Amino acid sequence: MALAESTRKKVRPIGLLLFRHETILLLVLVGEWLYFNAVGRRFGTPDNTFDIMRHSAEIGLLALVMTPIILTGGIDLSVGSLLGLCAILFGKLWRDGGLSLPVAAGCTLLIGACAGGLNAALIARLRLPALIVTLGTYSLFRGFAEAITRGVDTFTNFPDSFLALGQNRFAGLPAQVWFFLPVAIGIWMLVHRTSFGRSFRAIGFVPDGARFAGLPVERRVALVYVLAGLVAALAAIIYTARLGQAKADAGTGYELFAITAVVLGGTSIFGGVGSVHGTLLGVAAIAVLNNGLVHARQPREVAGMLTGALLLAALGASEIPKLLARMRAPRHGAAPPLSPNNPS
Amino acid sequence: MRKYSRELTVAGVLCVLLLALAITAPAFYEPQPLLSRLAREAPTLILACGIALVMVSRQIDISIGSLFAVSSVCAGLLAAAGWPLAAVLGITVLFGAGLGAVNGALVAGLRLPSIVVTLATMVILREGLRWQQQGAFINLPDSWQWFGLSQRGGQITLISCALLALFALAWASRNFAGIRFLYAVGSNAEAARLAGLRPQWMTFAVFVFMGALAGGAALMNVVQSPQVDPKSGTGLELKAIAAAVVGGVAVSGGRGNLWGVFAGVLLLASINPALTYLHVEAYWEKAIQGAVILLAVVFDGLRNQREIS
Lengths: 344, 309
Known about the structure:
The complex is a heterodimer.
Chain A: H1 2-11, H2 21-39, H3 46-71, H4 79-95, H5 101-125, H6 130-149, H7 160-167, E1 169-170, E2 173-174, H8 175-193, H9 195-205, H10 207-212, H11 217-243, H12 254-264, H13 276-295, H14 300-328
Antiparallel strand pairs in A: 1-2
Helix pairs in contact in A: 2-13, 3-8, 3-9, 3-11, 3-12, 3-13, 4-5, 4-6, 4-11, 5-6, 5-11, 7-11, 8-9, 12-13, 12-14, 13-14
Chain B: H1 5-24, H2 31-56, H3 64-80, H4 85-109, H5 114-133, E1 138-139, H6 151-175, H7 177-187, H8 189-194, H9 199-222, E2 227-228, H10 236-246, H11 258-277, H12 285-308
Antiparallel strand pairs in B: 1-2
Helix pairs in contact in B: 1-11, 2-6, 2-7, 2-9, 2-10, 2-11, 3-4, 3-5, 3-9, 4-9, 6-7, 7-9, 10-11, 10-12, 11-12
């Protein structure tokens, strides 16, 4: 075993900083930017840059909060559905419940945290697989949203002062940025600058080892899911403010975009490895690609296909050297075990 | 008996639901609507059996909804071009298997996590299809719907095909070494390797098989309507996974029984009509479906905890 360890270390590339996942992704992002700037006429303008920020804020928030979850080796498929449910409940509390908008927003955040708490209870307390629990709540939350609106009810006519949160600029930047930045900084600090956040990676690496090391694994895991619920509710409010309406299908498919951004940003789906700044780069790479292709007059679908291809390329690039090493290595000896797919 | 308590519980719940419907809403059992419902669920059953085998070998495939849609369009285009049924069936199944092989090569060859690989192929296939079709439906020749039989005849044919496939797979999963190996690989890939199996090849094979089943299921869906909808199969992957989970297949691999999956498919499929007949609004379907999935896993979790303590 010791021999296997030492040979594996030799395979690792030497120019570590240059070949870091984040560095490569940053180069891809810069390349994208330069290309679209050359091709699209309006792409590089500040207006368009703000447009990109505006449209990627919700998915960005979900991706940010998905990062600690995936770091602990979990996954949350329910965030998109929860966004829809929170948007509906926000509208319902305001229009039919007669609450003022700030109170309704506060209640929505609370509901989001409670819904995250349901995931947390099932995953951390009962130790059920996160993939399946959140598949269930994915269906449950969207189902509640549909049942509450009976599939047709839409909440509109929000006052302008509220819509400003999604459509105006404050201090020269889109209003979304002022929600997004504190969350991004907060989660970055949590994950990268506190021992509390460091424990997420320990749990993702070896849950049992973390438990033996004295970490309260259940409580830490529960926290990341509650946090996800809370931020999904925040994203729901911003989403409602940006579009000026709340419908039951709000945020459909967002969970997949968020997971894509996180994995593209270099976080291992098995947990333990990854970074919040990587996620931010992943979100930016996807957002720029989507927006840029529109400016380059390519059909919308190409953006989706390229995002998928980019995801495969990002993963494959780190695996192909290992594949070659495996093919050169003698057939006997301890082969690396088949990676378990189950990310929970 | 204890070994199958999970499957028996699902079957019990299904029986109670069906019994309740028999008492409160006998209209549920009128033959024609019942046949139509069962025929609509036939493709789901095929996909759920396939995903159960994928999950047994400790992988997951969330691209099957897209695979299903792409195969449907492939079958539709061939049919519209006037190819005979047998040829279309063969080509669609091979086409699905080919796309499954791409997933399999990426997962088994490059050892990438299957959930991410199939997430990527799901998006690529779905968007590629939208690009190519631009949402346009494909009109099928008249002789295609219900294989050119009467509606009832076609539905009975479809249901029997699905049941036949289920019987064959359920029998094979107990008696055919190839599928037993999947259980071995899913339980412990390293132990399976040391026992002389080749986990990577088994993984590759199960994805190819899943693709072939998706192609077959797509054809079963295509013959049910006069047109092919390029958006068909959206969300089908989650429906199939949900049915497998409710039916007692463990995502952690190595455990699952196709009869349980059958009960899971029937249970999830009866929820929507049951709501209608019990005068609950149909908007609750998704919420109840989610609740059923959660109940099933909570049941598993509590039972596991009892077994440990």
